[in-house]
Design brief:
This protein is α+β, with helices and mostly antiparallel strands and 209 residues long. The protein is 32% helix and 28% strand.
Length: 209
């Protein structure tokens, strides 16, 4: 019922899905941005963290804002895109980055346009979805995730950790997305380092403006 009320949002996803680029559009990666949001009451706490490939923190922006939309399965972009884009605008002013990691799905989505794809398309940057749960599809024996008879994602798991689900957001291939997430995830950790720091920041609620 909730999705019917927001049918216009479904149309946005369907339109963007036809414009997404799933090939690599860059030569090298030097700076990576990770972004995550946590919630308390009606406030969204969004953290954006840029690191280099050695995991040194280059920039951090923490922004709190009012929640505008309820949580709707499959329409996560409505709830999170506002705080994310607001934070990204400030990050890009200070330090640009080469690739963006978003806590959410990319093309591994019923309409092939999750939060990571929406944000990546909006800012026209290489973006990877790193989600903590599976929204659609089935995991094959080789850990690739198939939906609608198409490989759209990959189940990534470090020893002893719960899996995450990697998918292309925009302007990057699935193969390269997997390589980047694997390289940025330290032994014993579940999330790639920039996204892990952003996740911790968003939950701490400290130094938010």
């Amino acid at each position: 019922m909730m999705q019917k009320e927001f049918s216009w949002a479904l149309d946005i996803q369907k339109e963007i899905s036809t414009k997404l680029i799933t090939d690599d559009t860059f030569d090298k990666i030097e700076k990576i941005c990770g972004m995550d949001i946590s919630y308390k009451n009606e406030t969204a706490y969004c953290s954006g963290v840029i690191t280099n490939t050695a995991f040194d923190i280059v920039a951090t922006i923490n922004i709190k804002s009012k929640v505008e939309y309820p949580y709707i399965s499959g329409l996560f972009f409505l709830r999170e895109s506002g705080p994310l884009l607001k934070t990204l605008a400030l990050l890009k002013d200070e330090n640009d980055f080469d690739v963006l990691l978003i806590d959410g799905h990319g093309v591994l989505h019923p309409r092939k346009c999750g939060l990571a794809s929406y944000i990546g398309y909006s800012i026209d940057k290489p973006t990877i979805g790193v989600a903590k749960g599976l929204l659609c599809g089935s995991v094959k024996r080789d850990h690739f995730v198939e939906y609608d008879e198409t490989i759209l994602g990959y189940e990534f798991k470090k020893r002893g950790k719960r899996p995450t689900y990697i998918s292309t957001g925009h302007k990057i291939s699935l193969e390269k997305s997997i390589q980047i997430v694997e390289k940025l995830t330290k032994d014993g950790e579940r999330l790639p380092e920039p996204l892990k720091i952003a996740d911790l920041n968003s939950k701490n609620h400290f130094n938010f403006v």
